[in-house]
Amino acid sequence: METIIKEKIAEVKSQRDAGWKILILLSTLILIFILSFALGRYPVPPGQLLEVLASRVFPLEAHWNATVETVIFQVRLPRIFAAILVGAALSTAGAAYQGMFKNPLVSPDILGASAGAGFGAALAIYFSFSMLGIQLMAFVGGLLAVGLTYGISLRIRHDPMLALVLSGIMIGSLFSAAISCIKYIADPYDKLPAITFWLMGSLASITSRDVYMVLTPILFGCILLYLLRWRLNVLAMGEEEARVLGINTGVMKTIVIICCTLMTAAAVSISGMIGWVGLVIPHLARMIVGPNYRVLLPASILLGGAYLLLVDDLARLLASMEIPLGILTALIGVPFFLYLLLNSKWGWK
Amino acid sequence: MELEFRNLSCGYGQRRVVDSISLRLKVGEVVGLLGANGCGKTTLIKTILGLLPVQGGEILLDGKNIKNWTSAQIARVIGYIPQMHTPPFPFEVLDVVLMGRTAHIKPFSSPSPQDVKIAERALDMLNISYLRDRVYTEISGGERQLVLIARALAQEPRILIMDEPTASLDFGNQIKVLSHVKQLAGMNIAVLMSCHFPEHAFIYSNRAVLLNEGKILHSGTPGETITAERLKTLYGIDVDIVTVKNRMNQELRVCIPSRNFTLQPMQSMERRNEYAFA
């Protein structure tokens, strides 16, 4: 009897622990969200922010400058939402890719998905496509790249973990070369700067239309992956084992690849190529909440969103000129990942 | 429940590894599958599990061909215990055992409290409830193998397939893991176990099947099937089978290699050349 009670307490405790951790991550995200308004060339203090936001719902008398509203709704809000969405998308895609390939070393950038999506988007910018066109092209490019990477890795008969990383690097550099090719032939006064700045990763010129455009694919990916959370756990034990445990791995892998690539492509199409987020954040999340996708996915979403929002704030604040996001995420991500590699008891064995 | 192979052939791609074998497996039976490396044990097991396509013949469950069954349908009847392995992610033991419930859980759902109860019962049955909240990658190899058995039990299968479940376990853990195999047969499960050591088949199985170059050499009770002569055919070495008594006064059969083990110095090249020209 006593043992049963002890077990029950342990069970409730572990569930509550996970709940607490998610709650703390959520509060962190909200805190950085409020902070992001207060920072920058035109700071909006939290009190004023609340008033302005409330005025949209309740009939309040506007005793503030009209500029404040413009800053909040035209500049800060779209950018903040974009940062959260892009961070969440890349981290969730990374977490799901890692489980699906049973490989803790993969991420959208290492699998070539980012480069593929970047190529598609660059091509679309070159041909002056609409935002929807850019997204579609990014998706097709990303899917092509991941498909090639996965296909090639299956034909390399060595260590499958290494094979996947190596073929990802190959396909990634192939698509990077293709991007360079587009840059080379692009109009140097108009298209070339657009492609170059977009590739370095930046959220400086985000509009609310951009945010609306990527909201659907990113939400769709997150929700579908969350629904499949248990099957992702089983898939992380390896393909053969997942099949023997009753999962149709062919269908499952296709769904996961499509979801992850869709989210990556949506992120890349508005923010350019932002590296390392999809590799580092899932590991950090796994360190905090463990490998069970039931909590790992929400943790990756919250942590990824908070992280990229913070990095974007730094990009705005650190210098008189904006620093491209891709540079900052690499500067932070690489040392952190090295630390993980050297202390590999975290995250994986 | 009865598993039957009728003229079953299997292999990789065009290559045939197992050639037209027939076998029946009933609930309550432990069948030990013996054979040299590369004789087709693993190929046969992978084919039963649906990981490799059937090349010829059929696999029947209660007389029904399982050719077009989905992996979930198969998993609800056939459980599998792989060789010891280390997954890259540090799942908790309870989560690993709960994975056995996957075939019973709807695609978009997670395990229910009912599933947790079944998983806990499986852990309890193997006396490893204390591992429940431990991290799977941090427990010992023997414990991990017991967790995999618990996972297969949580699957509630009627047929359990083990591919050398004691490979890469130390001496003590081998015996600990195998002691549970007979217990499984008592739970109305049919067990098919490939094993490395003929002794294991003597102790833990009701029936031994000898697989030689993709064909069944002999099948029957371990005592009459496993003979020195057949082991010579299977493994290419001379073996003596002797009966000994353990401290509990139980008779056990053990296989000992018949070979001169005194160290023979290797002949040097010159000496051999001398002989050649003599």
UniProtKB/TrEMBL annotation, chain B:
CDD domains: ABC_Iron-Siderophores_B12_Hemin. The keyword Magnesium does not apply. PROSITE patterns: ABC_TRANSPORTER_1, ABC_TRANSPORTER_2. It holds the Pfam family ABC_tran. Keywords: ATP-binding, Nucleotide-binding, Transport. This is ABC transporter related. Residues 3-238 form the ABC transporter domain. It comes from the Bacteria. One of its GO terms (molecular function) is ATP binding. SUPFAM superfamilies: P-loop containing nucleoside triphosphate hydrolases. Gene3D superfamilies: P-loop containing nucleotide triphosphate hydrolases (3.40.50.300). InterPro entries: AAA+_ATPase (IPR003593), ABC_transporter-like_ATP-bd (IPR003439), ABC_transporter-like_CS (IPR017871), Metal_Ion_Import_ABC (IPR050153), P-loop_NTPase (IPR027417).
